[in-house]
Design goal:
single chain, 359 residues, Multidrug efflux transporter AcrB transmembrane fold, Alpha-Beta Plaits, 3 domains, two-stranded antiparallel ribbon, 8% strand, disordered C terminus
Length: 359
């Protein structure tokens, strides 16, 4: 559904996910088998960030849930207050000025110069024939030329054609992104509903919507502008958010089928604590990789990394305080149908908790 760099990012990420699945299932096992057969692997110690955690996460579910949506309301309200200023060149359109040059200047330095000149976000692209095209806000072309000539006299920038770029392309990107997001969430809804039940699916979708809106809210508060790569970041956040939620739901379902004693709230808290170490490790590795992009990437990459950093944090948080809490409230604290058929010690199926069979 994407166009341009958004589609390219989607293709690259799809290839990466497929290869990651292949290596996890096959290559890793081959390496383990080889090490064991050669006698190099005697034991397999695992890293446990948190051992035997017993945190009552759901104790703070209601205040956390309310605080999240209040923060979302504030962030989106500020975005509405900013108005058209939240839209970058990709969506709002602007001036496209073509310059000739004698010496090439790194694009990140050009963007930094334009930002320091308070000319907002700009799209910088080198073309054949020693030409540089800079797309910036409407009526900013003269200031762009002057700023670059003053900052980089050795480059000998000379102004050429100045064209006005409409927001038609940006509108198409936005429309495609909305359709893609809706289709992906519909697919997730069907998948989770078939694998678990409707309440789990609905909780997962509400968590995804929460993450998208929270990311937009914090993005608006930070004063940044929306661009095409941000669309790719939002769609990636959807995938990351559901990943952690599915891991927790899997553990809840397993504990339900095992007939673990206690209330449904206790069972969910148990599942959250059992997966806590895994969640920290998984989210932490993604966070570190994205943080490197944020610290060392420039221009558009910085905005993408900033957006995804928000998504990593909110995606981890929402799995606990949005998705899991919603499932608990949906069933009014009672165990769902997933627990209606469990095996007793004698192999006879019974409803509810696991009960010892009579002699």
């Amino acid at each position: 559904m994407g166009t341009g760099p958004v589609k390219g990012f989607g293709v690259a990420l799809t290839i990466g996910v497929a290869l990651s699945l292949f290596t996890a299932l096959f290559i890793t096992r081959i390496i383990f088998d080889l090490l064991i057969s050669k006698g190099h692997l005697k034991s397999l110690p695992m890293l446990h960030i948190i051992k035997s955690a017993n945190v009552d996460f759901l104790k703070w579910a209601k205040p956390a849930f309310i605080s999240s949506w209040l923060l979302i309301a504030v962030g989106l309200g500020y975005g509405i207050y900013r108005g058209g200023n939240v839209m970058g060149v990709d969506f709002a359109g602007g001036d496209a000025v073509t310059l000739s040059y004698a010496q090439k200047v790194p694009t990140d330095q050009i963007r930094q110069t334009l930002e320091q000149a308070h000319l907002g976000e700009a799209s910088v692209q080198y073309q054949e024939g020693n030409r540089l095209q800079v797309t910036t806000g409407f009526n900013n072309a003269p200031q762009v030329v002057q700023a670059l000539q003053t900052r980089f006299p050795q480059a000998q920038f000379k102004s050429g054609a100045i064209d006005r770029v409409g927001a038609v392309v940006g509108a198409e990107i936005l429309r495609s992104a909305i359709i893609a997001a809706l289709l992906s969430m519909f697919g997730i809804l069907i998948y989770v509903a078939m694998r678990y039940e409707f309440s789990f699916a609905l909780g997962a979708i509400i968590a995804i919507i929460h993450d998208i809106l929270m990311t937009f809210g914090i993005f608006f508060i930070s004063g940044r502008q929306l661009s095409a790569p941000i669309v790719a970041a939002i769609l990636t956040i959807i995938g990351f958010s559901i990943n952690d939620t599915i891991v927790i739901f899997d553990r809840i379902r397993e504990d339900l089928k095992l007939g673990i004693r206690g209330s449904f709230k206790d069972l969910i808290n148990r599942a959250l604590n059992q997966t806590l170490s895994r969640t920290i490790i998984t989210s932490g590795t993604v966070f570190l990789a994205t943080m490197s992009l944020y610290l060392f990437g420039g221009g558009v990459i910085n905005d993408f990394a900033f957006t995804f950093l928000i998504g990593v944090v909110t995606g981890t948080y929402s799995s606990i305080y949005i998705a899991s809490a919603f499932v608990l409230w949906w069933h009014h604290g009672e165990r769902p149908r997933t627990a209606s058929r469990v095996l007793t010690e004698s192999g006879v199926e019974r409803g509810g908790e696991l009960k010892p069979a009579r002699a």
